[in-house]
Structures are given as C-alpha cells and as structure tokens.
Amino acid sequence: MGAEEAVRTPDANPVLDSRTAGPTVPRLVLGARLRRLREERQITREDAGEAIRASQSKISRMEWGRHGFKMRDVSDLLTLYGVTDEAERATLLALAEQANTPGWWQPFNDVVPAWMQAYLGAEQAASLVRCFEAQVVPDLLQIPDYARAAIRLTRPHISAEELDRRVTLRMKRQEILHRQRATQLWAVIDEAALRRPVGGTSAMRAQLRHLIEVCQLPRVTVQIVPFLAGGHPAAGGPVTIVRLPGGQLPDMVYLEQLAGAVYPDKPAETEYYWDVMNRLVVKAESPDATCAILHRILQET
C-alpha cells in the first residue's frame, strides 16, 4: 500500500463505538457540531464564551472535545446559535450527557494524567493508529518486562504498586489489536529503538521475538528506519495520528512529551504531520523486510 493511498483508504470499522471510547467520542462529535453551528452564525468564540459565562479558551477546548460539557452551557449555546428544533436539541443534549460519563480508564485514574485522557479515548475507538518512535518500541507493541523498564526510565521514583498499574494499563490498551473489530496499527520504528536493550538483554530479546509475532497480525504493519537511511522527516520526535471511524471527525495528532502532550489541531498542522508520516514510510524499509531485519537484530543482541 502506497503512502498517499493509505491516507485515503476507507475505514474497515465504519462505526463509532462509544462504549469502548467512553466520553471521548461524544465529546468530539458534540464539539464539532457546536463549532459548525457557531461558525454558521458567524459568532466569535469570545461572544460564545460570554454567553455561558466562560472564556473563549474554554469554548475552544469544548469544540475540540477536550473539555466536559455542562448541560446548561450546551443549552445556552444552542439557543445562542438559533437551534430551536426540539429533536436536534434533545440529540445534542444527550451527547452532552454521554460526554460526561466516566472514561474506560477510570479505574486507572491515579496513573492517567488529564492531558492523556483524550488520547486514550480516541485510541480505543480508532480505526487506524499510525505512529513513529525513535527511542523505544511503541506502547501498543511492548511486552510487560520491556514496558516496566521503559516506564522506569522516565519515572524512576514511583512505587512498585504504581509501576504495576501503569504496566497493566499499557497492556490493556493493546486489546484494540486483538478484538473482533481490531484497530489497524501502522508503526514505524527507528533502528536505534531496536538496538537499545531497554530492560536488559533478556527483556530486549523477548521484545524482539514479540515484534516478530505481532507482525503476523492481519491489521498490524511495522516498518523499520535503518541507520543507513540517514536523516528522516520525523527527526523531531515521536508522532502518533489517530483516525476515528465514520468519517465525521478530524484526525487526532498526538505528540507525547516527558510530562505532557501537544494536540496540534489546525487543519494545516494535521496535514503537515500526515505528510511527515507518509514521507517517513517511504524512507523506511518495506514492511515485507521487517521480520528479516528483526531476526538479524535478534541474532546480534
């Protein structure tokens, strides 16, 4: 499959499932609808904020699905936007109620920072996740021993109990690759991440064997950027792009950092990161070569 073709490939999972995504999907759907209504009426975010006794930044967070919804606020905004049809109001208010339900990650709330919650919900509902990692194996492809060591690298002082909970959460996230309507994962990994023995030689060898196995899953594609490829378009750091099914919502770009994350959401920014990912897969070795490369690295580890 070509890089440009991948952007246009129809979703194999065309139905949004709010049961797996928790409040994230209804937040995104409602936010997008409120944004369209505001723009159709040519109302500024500042004026919309004044109508619900809030700032324009809160309106922005609501419209991009990164903030919960008060029923009164949604009702007041619908009135401001001229929505008088009772059926439409009822539908949107029902979405607001769903948007305030606990997320699937709620049992792990103590180890899930607020900045990660929107991504976790989108990841669980995704039809496609594309990612690049330069330093470590992507979260969705890690084994427990490797994950434990990788988490320790950035959080060296957490308790053994918290570490266990973080590893359990990471393993639970991977269920999207094995369910009946599996998410399509297209991961590009820098060779450096595969050569670096995170967790020691034994854990790294087990991780490499796991990657060889997971490459056999029908909806998982793994490519490797070899050292000999030289520089590449994603040299700035890890990138993840999430596509939600149904074609109604914008793609989510997620740039995780050590103590936070950035969600570039302007259309031009999203297009830029798609271009980076598409150029990156051309720079990487073909997916058909991945298992052979992994076997070679395993023999040398």
Which key terms come to mind for this protein?
six-stranded mixed sheet; 14 helices; 6 strands; about 300 residues
Written account of the structure:
The chain is of the alpha/beta class. 50% of the residues lie in helices and 11% in strands. The chain has 14 helices and six strands. It has helices at 3-8, 18-21, 24-40, 45-51, 56-63, 71-80, 86-98, 114-125, 144-154, 160-173, 191-195, 201-214, 267-283, 290-300, and strands spanning 128-133, 184-190, 220-225, 239-243, 252-257, 260-262. Strands 3-2-1-4-5-6 form a six-stranded mixed beta sheet, sandwiched between helices. A hairpin with an 8-residue loop joins strand 4 and strand 5. Helix 3 runs antiparallel to helix 7, helix 4 (45-51) packs across helix 5 and helix 6 (71-80) packs antiparallel against helix 7. The longest helix is centred in the N-terminal third of the chain and has 17 residues, at 24-40. It is elongated and about 65 Å long. The two termini are 31 Å apart. Mean pLDDT is 90; it is low at 1-16.
Instruction: Give the strand order, joined by hyphens, for the main sheet.
Output: 3-2-1-4-5-6
Largest sheet: 6 strands, mixed
Looking at the chains present, what oligomeric state does this protein adopt? single chain
**String of helices and strands:** HHHHHHHHEHHEHHEEEEHH
Unreliable stretches: 1-16
How large is the radius of gyration?
21 Å
Overall strand count: 6
Output mean pLDDT.
Answer: 90
How large is the share of residues in beta strands? 5-15%
Note the total helix count.
Answer: 14
